[in-house]
Amino acid sequence: MTDFDIYGDDEHPAAYNDEPTPILADDPDWTRRAAWHLRRIADWEQRKHDLEQAFVKEIDHLSERLGQEAEKLQAKVDWHRRPLVQYHEAVLASDPARKTIVVPGGKLCSRTPSKADVGFSAKDQFIDWAHVHAPHLIEPTWKPALRQIERAVEAGELMPTHTPEPGDPAYLVDPETGERVPGVHLGKKATTFYVRLDEEGEF
Question: Do 180 and 76 form a contact (C-beta atoms < 8 A)?
Answer without folding.
Answer: no
